[in-house]
Amino acid sequence: MLILAIDSATPVAGVALLDGNKLLKEEFSNYKKTHSQTLMPMIDRVLRECECSIDDLAAVAISAGPGSFTGLRIGMATAKGLCLASGKPLVTVATLDALAYNVLRSQDLVCPLLDARKQEVYTCFYDVSAALPRRLVEMSACSPVEFVEQALHLAHKFGREKILLLGDAYYPYEEYFQKTLGEKLLVAAPHLMYPRAASIASLAILKLEAGEWDNLFSLRPHYIRLSEAEYRLGKGAQ
Amino acid sequence: MRESLILGIETSCDETAAAIVRNGGEILSNIVNSQIDIHQQFGGVVPEVASRKHIENIAGVVHRAFSEAQLAYSAIDAVAVTNRPGLVGALLVGVSFAKAFAYALEKPLIAVNHLHGHIYANFLEHKDIEFPAICLVVSGGHSSLLLMSNQNKMEVLGETRDDAAGEAFDKVARFLGLGYPGGPAIQEAATKGKAGQLQLPRVFLDRNDFEFSFSGLKTAAMNQWNKLQRRGQANVYDMAAEFQAALVEVLVEKSIKAAARYQVRTIMMAGGVAANQELRNLMLKKTNEAGLKLFYPSLNLCTDNAAMIAANAHYHYGNRSFAPLSLNAYPSLLSL
Ligand SMILES: [Zn+2]
Hints:
The complex is a heterodimer of chains A (238) and B (336). Chain A has 238 residues and is α/β, with parallel strands linked by helices.
């Protein structure tokens, strides 16, 4: 069962091709270029090298957010285009779930952090002691201060000795996290800090097997936040 | 020219659109999903809100274009998409979708300049357009005069220095409390008033170039309106009529001047503001007096649509001028 996974939720662009539980190829790029220019050529390289075409796929998977609004839309528009043309199912995976899946079988409280601008982070708290990451709370956008408060609270509540942070929003607040979390703080290894298309593909296979694919005609990214204009109008959540 | 059946995709502003056109002239389907009622509550197009609607609607709109044309996806020869100018976040949805859709179907991809697309709306309805021609493209996003020497050569003669014509309509309409979108609102109000009762400047008309400026006109209208209100003499209908006249006269005079300067016998109008009745009437009168031929699209092809994108792409298809998978979107007009 071939799954093509696409991720452009953060400054990282990633494409992976997974055959069942065998990763065939993964491209990862965290270097300047814009996703709109790099993503399709990456997809083409991955498929070509593995002598596959879109027709050979069982499904296309996409990280559905949270993340950069524009980045999410580039990835999702690409996935929708591939799936509409080919009739393949589109499977979404939450960006934070995929990040948490980078560090499994751990007794720590695992907290992925993505840059949400405006001095905030997108985050969630996970139990990763089993085969799959399990969200302990809802995904949200919050300040680093609120994040640390909640991390300490949840670590206490669930009896976790260590709090493991990963994701690109760790670095801008590194000093603050070191100061406030002290001995409890763990940080993922550099190669596990970022969303990986391979993680998205692995989670997507499970969803596909469970029949959980998405409707191309109504699917939208999981932004968490309203647009500025909607905030000002005081509209309900999207 | 090679035969072609082209899917066009357009997401540069607040319309999610897809169309299928044969040979640049025959519309098989033309789907436009307008977000106008959503942006109305904000008093104008909000880029992030527009992009969010585009990603939600794009697959459905493209699918409908095929089902109305009663075609399978694989029946098309190429996928064309607007990649400039426009709101970048909005353009990126169409560009990303189009690239992937074309790739999965193994069809060539064609990048279309939105401004050129507007001009090609004329070729969907008029089969007897002669070159060279002067093209006036006026909408919420553009006010440009172009010289079109033939199907493959277009040159910008002049552009607006500040607000586009449609933008000026929107801002003044909002200021006068006439609502959004401003073009139709001012046109409607103007029918109840009379131009010439008030005096607004014909900006740049004295200049010997083909540049426009509508920000000065907008400011003059607002200042005069404030004064009139203080004196208790404010008549919104006369103001709307005078504002519309001041804007339309400049557009028409400059187009006629450009035709004379470049010894051109044809004028084409395009873009949302080309739907303005006063502009159509005055341009018809002046082109008749000057012995010029005038073309403009019907109302639904003046505003943003994807049929015009597919129509323009037909000529790129003939030249085999295809875009790479690395195609990007750009806010600016700069030629490709
Ligand atoms: Zn336009």
